[in-house]
Amino acid sequence: MERLSNHYQENVRRLDALLGVGRSCDMVSRDYRIGGHRARIWVVDGYGRDDVLERMGAFWLSLPESALAGLTKMQEFVDRFVSFSEVTVSMALEDVTTSVFLGKTLLLVEGLPGAALIDCKEYPCRGVDEPPDGKVLRGSHDGFIEALVPNMALLRRRIRDPHLTMEAHQAGDRSHTDIILCYLGDRVDEDLLKELRAKIDGIPARSLTMGQESLAEAIRPKQWYNPFPKIRYTERPDAAAASVLEGNIVVMIDNSPTVMLLPTTFFDFTQEANEFYFPPLVGTYLRLLRVIVFLLSLFLTPAWFVAVKHPNILPGWLSFLSTPEPVSLGLLWQLLVVEFLIDVLKLASLNTPDSLSNSFSMLGALILGDFAVKAGWLGPEVLVYMSFVSVATFAQPSYEMGYAFKLIRVSLLLITAVFDIWGFFAGLIGIVLLLATTKPVAGKGYLYPLIPFNGKALRRLFLREPINRDNT
Description:
The chain has helices spanning about 10-20, 50-60, 75-80, 95-100, 150-160, 190-200, 210-220, 235-245, 280-310, 330-350, 355-375, 380-395, 400-435, 455-460; strands spanning about 25-35, 35-45, 85-90, 105-110, 110-120, 165-170, 175-185, 230-235, 250-255, 260. The chain is α+β, with helices and mostly antiparallel strands.
């Protein structure tokens, strides 16, 4: 590892070249005369806090010629003349340059070996508004943002415990992206923590340009064929704090407002923040309703397809389900076309300006649905069932799990169309096997607490229990 030399002018030339002074218009440098010694600072424009730098610079310029007499190390200068609390001294050239790009202010003083790294940065960031995909009727309405320091503060505000640990890591040879592991030292699973540290420290990626998704792809098991999400995400500080208090690990990544909750199991996706802001009975009802509706969204259309092909398996009072209105397209093609159109409408709404998105979604769905029925392409029953499936997908907060169920639903529908009723039951067995063989990023297993079985933990997943000393 290259180190700074003891020659001031040589260090200035090397740092100017590495940091891009004169080449990059946002790299600011400034020369000082401090106590009769030459000095120079480097800072990225837009990162440094002008008020702090101005006060420190005015103080340094006022020092008399004899102020630095007897000083032989940069640490001695820092201890006496740098009033800002977050400051370190380094001799490593790579560490110095990376720190400047992270927002720190670099200070060199002639005759004092080493570089002072003053962490008086202030990233441009938005307010901690409530995230759009995790709204609650009651409770806090703040959310994580793209900067790590405010995100850590949001968790510290909720967990005022000396065991709360914010462990720093970096990943990416080029991006040097900051990653924080947040956990309670007296409750975390040490084996899980070691496993997660090893995965993060061993990331081979050059950069994590896509934030949490880049990190997730680097640490999760390589099962490209398995659509089930291996990681649960949230932008809500209260949900993250609750996860930490349960002994889990929250992974925060710089430039991303989304944090990871690890370990993640399949049953974790049955929970939502709204349930904990209502009384236990109401919360239990909402949780069970979500589970039932979500399972219906998976099996409704394949089961209806089987019922239409085999009307004799239905009791008499449900016979109306097996006689859809005849149209030009076959039932299988109708279901596939509507699945495709729903995703097209989602993408179109996502890329539509906010002022037009709501009206576009409603008009697009009404116009397409009405004309498709009048033209004889789609039956009204298909639209009803697929509308229910589409609405049910939003009954739980994970987009990843919603699309996993969508892919499995379409696959089950295709298998049923090819192999008839035997294909339907084979598809059900395949779903169970896929769940059982899903590898989590870390932890006891994807189907925990069902496999391995933990009755108390499984009950708490489906029933919203009152708060007491054991489950706070």
